[in-house]
Amino acid sequence: MAAAVEEHRQELTRLDSKIGDGDHGTNMHRGFQAALERLETDAPSTPSDVLKAVSMALISKVGGAAGPLYGTAFLRASSALSGKEEPDASDAVEAMEAALAGIKQRGKAEVGDKTMVDALEPAVEAARKEAGSSGDVGRVLRAAAEAAAQGAESTVPLAARRGRASYLGQRAAGHKDPGAASMHLLLDAAALALEA
Amino acid sequence: MATGLVLVSHSPEIASGTAELVRQMAGDVEVRAVGGDPDGALGTDPDRIGNAIEEIGTDEILIFMDIGSAVLSAEAVIEMLDEGLRERVHLVDAPFVEGAFAAGVVASAGADARECMEAARQARTEPKLH
Questions:
Q1: What is the per-residue burial (b if ≥16 Cβ within 10 Å, else e) of A133-157?
Q2: Is B130 a catalytic residue?
Q3: Catalytic residue from among B10, B18, B30, B74
Q4: Partner of A158 at 20 to 30 A CA spacing, among A46, A164, B12, B70?
Q5: What ipTM does this complex have?
Q6: Closest residue of chain B to A106, computed from CA coordinates
């Protein structure tokens, strides 16, 4: 995830400069570098502890709205995986559902508000469906990532109703939401990691 | 029942400037300014927000936030506090400067958190031009 964020840092910042304050790539990069450092120092052993360490790094280092939002998402996912050494497909779905609930609670956004929820909610639905039919964690995450890509794309024509972009009204239409774009990146990186 | 204020702004100058204003008019009140991101640039810093809440030492703690991620960061910090402390912390839905100012003045007169928050909320509807 840190590598994906680094690779796409400029793209995220470019998207954010259209409708935000132009620091989403920089902030996410700083957060995930801090997460990497924390993982090296703390060396957490369970999936739940790894997610918690990432959450703490993101909350303390991101600096913008993405910090508390992604931090909450990773924290809720961490709680959902508590005690699970080898999460299966339904555990992965539960973790994503918990993350989505956390983001919606914190950001008070729904699908259509032009936020990361537009990528994550369809991703969770696709993951749930895939887990029901295949039961393979890798395929569940791949399905989630693909749905997130479409979800992120669906934010292009929307006017924003949350965050800095909401002040722009219709002027925000025509640009992909940077939070939805980074959400897709993270899910894609998670899927790639399992496919490797 | 001392009530303290934690002022969370994206800008270090807005946070410290507002704290200065509150202290000028409400000398006895505990005020902490938390401005900027972890590098001191524009943004918010949950670590320092959490530290300010833990260090302020008043019976009740009011958090004032400017915009957007200041609110999200403060909410995330509160979710992670120990329960005992969390019960003494209140997020205030009020304009940043005017609300903190009104709450500070009332707090310096010994008002409890509820009264301070009411003063801050009234600052939202107080007309400036008569």
A1: eeebbbbbbbbbbbbbbebbebbee
A2: no
A3: B10
A4: B70
A5: 0.79
A6: B72
